[in-house]
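Late entry, evening session. Most of the bench is empty. Finally got around to the prediction I had been postponing all week. Sequence below, unchanged from the version circulated by S.P.
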Amino acid sequence: MLATSKEQMKTAGGSHAFADYTIALPETFQLESGEKLKENFLKLRFFGNRSGKHLFVCGGISGSRIVCDDGETPGFWRKVFHEHGAVDFQKYCIISVDFLPNDNETVQCITTDDQARAIFLALNMLEIFRLDGFIGASYGGMVGLKLASLQPGYCKNYCILSAAHRPNPIATAYRGIQRRVIEFSERVGQVEEGLSLARQIAMIGYRTPQEFSKRFSCRANEKSHAARFDVCDYLESRGKDFSKKFTAHRYLTLSHSLDDHFVDIETIADPLFLVSVEDDQIVYEGDIAELATCVHAPVRHENFVSPYGHDAFLCEPQRISGYLQQFLERFSV
């Protein structure tokens, strides 16, 4: 059963329709853990040309189905996906998703396998039996690789940015501390503070020392153990903002999903366009290079240097737009 929850005649500047769908997954849908979802549905958004080529787009764990500005809510990837951007809204029907778990979910473990299977089922229920392209960054890229593994041939081509077939131990180390901070904060009744601190730790890993050196001073505002540093003020503001938008349970679930991710390279046969960042502290460029070298499929691997590290897919719109244009043109999407 599916329901249209919203439809408006505007997105990205007001000239394109978008439609949000809430898709009830089959009652038989079961997670890898053996659990069943309490909130057994997936939220999708369609925008651009509904008669155009089907292009699935998704970002990191803090992203959503709102990829570009819709007149009400800023899109998380709005610097890349906009009216006159690399992806032609007249040519493509762009599909995006809110990753599981939904806001009031209680299950503890949701994997990239679960995400990919839910997306595949929801699209089939909407009678979309093949995708022309998939663009995924960070966690979205992991889900894309898992979809390619589980459903070979379902999508013609994949563009995977800052994501690999497995997590790197350094990233797991970062995320493990974040989860323990949140779990401790739950025990002492300071969940919002714990979520804020976890996000602050994450922000350090998303960027690079070079970027922080350019933006912030190393000098304190006074000689005291309580002295303030501008970099700490920045991180605290980001953490507080994030803690108002995300629940601790959802963060813990998706964080664990990142570390539980694994795709057998041998199972991928569809063409891949891979983009890595030299100074990414979260997704090691060498892991993406390993994927590019070992996969038995047509592959193109681009690597670049950016002070934004893992956040380059959000903070380098011109460069990322260029790579997306290459993907769409050279892979004939």
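Two things to note before I forget:
The longest strand covers residues 41-48.
The beta strands are 2-8, 18-24, 41-48, 53-58, 92-98, 133-137, 158-161, 272-277, 299-304.
Will write this up properly tomorrow.
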